[in-house]
Amino acid sequence: MGVSGCGKSTVGSLLAAKLGGKFFDGDDYHPQANIDKMASGQPLNDDDRQGWLESLRDLITSEAQAGRTAVIACSALKKKYRDLLREAGAEVSFIHLHGSRELLLERLTDRAAEGNHFMPATLLDSQLDTLEYPQGEPFTHILNISHSPASLADEAANQL
């Protein structure tokens, strides 16, 4: 979990491989209306995120019922979003990838230059404003993104 540009997809895919599980990118589950809204520079609100989070919760439930390990990259910016995901009826843990605004902005700017993501760097501040830092939440671990993706995946696996 974390704001855009923190490395959720990169670290998540490495972590899934380490755990022998499957990686799912939460961005792939956004309805087109959400993607269009973000691409136009508008932040999502709670109503926009509700159905998306419910589909991720259902994915967690399905994978757990099948006995599979799943790693899902999802911003999960607010506690109530994380609580909704915890409703999956499975053991849900969060790895919060946290970093400085400067580093996040640099990564988002680089990603935008490559043209491989719909989320513009201009929405970083709205995500940081929305983020409710997960202090004291069960099964939640915080990692600093200044380390390499491989070392973050190793640390995440150790924490889990």
Automatic annotation (TrEMBL):
Recorded GO CC terms: cytoplasm
InterPro entries: P-loop_NTPase, Shikimate/glucono_kinase, Therm_gnt_kin
Native organism: Rubritalea squalenifaciens DSM 18772
Key word Kinase present: yes
CDD domains assigned: GntK
Sequence similarity: Belongs to the gluconokinase GntK/GntV family.
Short name of one Pfam family: SKI
EC number: 2.7.1.12
Pathway linked to the protein: Carbohydrate acid metabolism
NCBIfam families, sorted: therm_gnt_kin
Lineage of the species this protein comes from: Bacteria, Pseudomonadati, Verrucomicrobiota, Verrucomicrobiia, Verrucomicrobiales
A GO molecular-function descriptor: ATP binding
Keywords linked to the UniProt accession: ATP-binding, Gluconate utilization, Kinase, Nucleotide-binding, Transferase
Catalytic activity: D-gluconate + ATP = 6-phospho-D-gluconate + ADP + H(+)
Signal peptide bounds: none
Stated name of the protein: Gluconokinase
Superkingdom of source: Bacteria
GO biological process, one term: D-gluconate metabolic process
